[in-house]
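CO-FOLDING WORKSHEET

Operator: S.A.
Ligand of interest: flavin-adenine dinucleotide
Run index: 445
Mode: holo prediction, single chain
Checklist:
[x] sequence pasted
[x] SMILES validated
[ ] output reviewed
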Amino acid sequence: MNDALAERLERLKPRNAATALDWLGRLLMDNREMSAWEHDTCTLPRGARRWRRRALAFAREHIRPLAPEVDLHPDDFDPRPLLSKAARGGFQTLIFISPIGRASIATYLQGVGLQVAVVAEEFATECGGLALRLMAHNLGIAPLILSGNFHTILRHFVPYYLKSTFLGSPEVMAYAITEPGAGSDVEATEGGAQAHLLTSAKPVKGGYLLNGQKTFISGGAIANKVTVYARIEGEGIESWTCFLVEKGMKGFSVGRREKKMGQRACDASELIFEDVFVPHQNVVGKPRSGWANNRNVLNFSRPVVGAMALGHGRGAFERCVEFCRKTYLGPRRLIEYQDVQIELADMMISLWAARTMVWHSCRQLRCYQSGSAAAKVFASDTAFKVCNQAMELMGDYGYVHAHGVERSWRDSRLSQIYEGTNEINRLAVFEHQQSTDFKNGGPNR
Ligand SMILES: Cc1cc2nc3c(=O)[nH]c(=O)nc-3n(C[C@H](O)[C@H](O)[C@H](O)COP(=O)(O)OP(=O)(O)OC[C@H]3O[C@@H](n4cnc5c(N)ncnc54)[C@H](O)[C@@H]3O)c2cc1C
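OUTPUT RECEIVED:
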C-alpha cells in the first residue's frame, strides 16, 4: 500500500472523519475505542457490572492456570481450595439476598439470574469444567429459594452463609432430578407424565425413608447437601417432593463417577439412596410441590447454562484471535486476510446475538419457560458453531490440547445436552407459547 492511500484510509476512518461534524454531531457519534466486552458491560445494571469485572479477574487469576491440567487429570484435582477462594470472593452466595448473600433487592428486581449469568460466562471462558464445578451448586440452592418457604430458607442459609463467606469453607450443594430411566422425561410435561421414576419416599414417623438412585449429578461426589426429587411411594410424578439430603445421612452414598468428554473438571456422579431417613425439616417447601418447583428451577437455570455456553464459545474465539494475530500465512499474518476477518467477525456477531438473548431472558424478576429455554438453545448451539469455526481457522493447532480450543469444543457440546437436551428445550418453547403464538400466530392475528 502506498503512503498516499494509507493516509487517505486513516482520514476516512469514522473516528477521524467525525472531526468534520458539529460538536453535537460528534457527541451523538460513539467512536470510543472500546472492546465489545466493555461496551456490553456498560449496559449492565451496577451490581451485575461489578460482578462481571470481578469474575473476569478471578477467572484469569485462579481458573486459567488450573484449566489445562485439570482437564487432563480430573481425578487428581482437589477442588476445595478453589471453592474456598470463590466463597471468600462472594461467588458462592451470589443468589442470596443481602445481608445473607450478595444480592440486593434491586438485584432481584432487575433479575438475579443476570448476576449469576455474567459470572458463569467469565468462568466458562477460562474453563468449562471448573465453571460447572463452581456454578453447579447454585443449582443445588435454587430449589430452596424458589420453594418460597422462609423457614427452609433461613434454617439452611444462615449457617451456610457464615461458613461460606467468613470461613471460606463453602458447603457445596448439588441438584438431583435425573434417574437412570428418566432424563428428559423429568424436564418436560409430556415426558413427566410417562416417566418411570425409581426414587421414592415412604412417609414414616418424623419424616420419610428415601430409596432409589440419581445419575449424572454434577458435583454430586463432593456435595455436602443435595436437593433430591422423589415421588411419594405408590404415587406418580405429581407427588414429587424435594428433599435436602445431607452427606453422612445413613444409607446415602456416591456411586459411579462418569468419564466425561467435556467439562471434565466437575464430576457427574451416581447417587444412591438406601433407606435414607430424611426428617420433615429437610423437606424443601411443601410436600408434593416438587414438580412445580423443578420446572421453575429450570426456568432460572437454563439461561445460566446458556451463559456458560457463551463462555465456551468466547474462550475458543479469544484463543483463535490470538492465534490469527501471531500466525503467518505466506508473507502476512492470518488476521490480515479479509476472509479471516469476515470469519472472526461472524463468530463475534454470533456470540453477541446469543449474549443478548441470554441477558434478556435473565433480566426478569421471574424467568419464564420459553424465554429461558430459547436462550439456552440458541447460546449452546451458537457456542458449538463458534468453537467449530475456531477449530477450522486454526487447523492442526485447533485440534491439539495445548491451545485450548478443542477443550472449549468438548465443553460446549455438553451444554447442548444437559439441563434438558436442546430438542426438549425447543419443546419447552412450543409448550409455553402453544396457547398464544402457536395458536393464533401472535398478538395481531
Ligand atoms: C455431564 C452431565 C451433567 C449433568 N448434570 C446433572 C445434574 O447436576 N443434575 C441432574 O439432575 N441431571 C444432570 N444431568 C442430566 C441431564 O440433564 C440429562 O441427561 C439430559 O436432560 C438428557 O437426558 P437423557 O440423557 O436421559 O436423554 P434422553 O431423555 O434419553 O433423550 C435421548 C434423546 O431423545 C431425545 N428426546 C427425548 N424425548 C424427546 C421428545 N419428546 N421429543 C423429541 N426428542 C426427544 C433427546 O433430545 C435426546 O436426543 C447431567 C447430564 C450430563 C451428561
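REVIEW:
The pocket of flavin-adenine dinucleotide is lined by residues 136, 174-178, 183-184, 187, 191, 216-218, 260, 268, 414, 417-421, 423-424 (CB under 6 Å).
The two ends are 57 Å apart (CA to CA).
[x] output reviewed
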